[in-house]
Design goal:
- By secondary structure, the chain is an alpha/beta fold.
- The protein is about 30% helix and about 20% strand.
- Helix 3 (about 85-100) links the parallel strand 4 (about 70-75) and strand 5.
- It contains seven helices and eleven strands.
Length: about 260
């Protein structure tokens, strides 16, 4: 795959490894984050900082200087990062249209399917049940209506890796619900690989679920992860027999395997 020059909105958990992967493959990369940290020094990226909640942020000079010539724009921002998520995504898309961007990759979430007990693929109707999921659905609609010829909406499963694992927060709780619900997880490495593949292979309008194919019960998944990490097991309420969704994909163009 030929790695394109790219601009990344959100230089964090997914943005940093994606930027590094693109750069290693010869891409010129621009990125935007809210504030700099010591880890940002000497990165091979045209890195700018800005508060996207601020009025007039899309008139800043760095958009023209570092973003206008990048053929692929990538959005990795979660709704929690913004006061008015749809409005900011809409302003960002308007700028993309102004610059003639041909390809946008958006990291969404399987939360748009809600929590009801069912099997979901890309043809299943969304049932967003949280404010965050509603905002993601609104952003998806803006993307699909933007007129940009290549749109990739990747609905990512629950993210984890050894350095930042949801087990850490579970260990602070007791009698955790949903012990027998299937998990829909996605290792950060596979998430970055899918985003990179999307950026390198424009293919019109694509909405894809990016989730590992195995869906063990939650208590089983986290027990195995605790053993890998050398941590205690999470305290699940094993009497809770409630079910949940299983997210699959109807497509074979993004191959994800468990790690």
């Amino acid at each position: 795959m030929n790695a394109p020059d790219a601009a990344i909105l959100g230089m964090g958990y997914l943005g940093r490894p994606l930027a590094e992967k693109l750069f290693e493959q010869g891409s010129r990369v621009a990125a935007l984050k809210r504030r700099l940290t010591s880890d940002d020094i000497n990165l091979p990226v045209a890195l700018d900082t800005a508060d996207l909640n601020r009025v007039g942020v899309f008139q800043e000079a760095f958009w023209q200087q570092h973003w206008a010539d990048k053929p692929v724009w990538i959005c990795l921002l979660p709704p929690s990062a913004l006061n008015d998520y749809p409005a900011v995504i809409g302003g960002w898309l308007a700028l993309a249209q102004q610059f003639g961007v041909q390809h946008i990759v958006y990291a969404g979430s399987i939360s748009v399917y809600g929590d009801g007990e069912r099997v979901c693929d890309e043809h299943s109707p969304p049932q967003p049940a949280t404010a965050g999921a509603v905002n993601i659905m609104a952003a998806e609609q803006l993307l699909l209506q933007s007129g940009v010829p290549h749109i990739d909406i990747l609905r990512l499963g629950g993210l984890y890796c050894a350095q930042r694992h949801p087990l850490t927060s579970l260990l602070k709780r007791s009698s955790i619900a949903g012990a027998h619900r299937p998990v829909n997880m996605l290792h950060r490495g596979w998430a970055v690989a899918a985003l990179y593949q999307a950026a390198c292979t424009p293919g019109g309008i694509r909405v894809r679920n990016i989730v590992e194919p195995q869906h063990p019960p939650k208590h089983q998944f986290y027990r195995a992860e605790a053993a890998k990490l050398g941590l205690p097991e999470a305290a699940f309420d094993m009497a809770d027999r409630s079910g949940g969704k299983t997210v699959t994909t109807a497509f074979d163009d993004f191959t994800i395997q468990a790690v």
